[in-house]
Specification:
This protein has 115 residues and is of the alpha+beta class. It has a single domain, classed as Thrombin, subunit H (Beta Barrel), CATH 2.40.10.220. The chain has two helices and six strands; from the N terminus they run H-E-E-E-E-E-E-H. The longest helix is centred in the last third of the chain and has 17 residues.
Amino acid sequence: MAQENDERRGLPRFPIEGILVLERNNEEYPIRLLDISTAGARFESDREFSPESLVRILLDHFPVDVPLRALVAWSRPLDGGLFEHGVEFINLPRAESVLVQDFIVEKSEEAPPST
């Protein structure tokens, strides 16, 4: 099934977890990143964001946070009052795309080896 999703998306997603900040309408919300690619991301939140909502995700990448404009593609409720969302990055400039790739490499190296 993961392979089908990767083929549909065109780019593989990397399972990287971490707490990031999402901005919408000048308000900030903590989100838990689940996976990411240079095309988009999947995350959990205690707030529902409607599909087609425009948001910015602040990618915590040293030395600065990188704001990534995104469009919420889908949203679904989870247990415990949480929601899972998928976003597509919008008009990602080449420099920001490279920073997302660097973030993926950096966070992948920090992850403990699976046993």
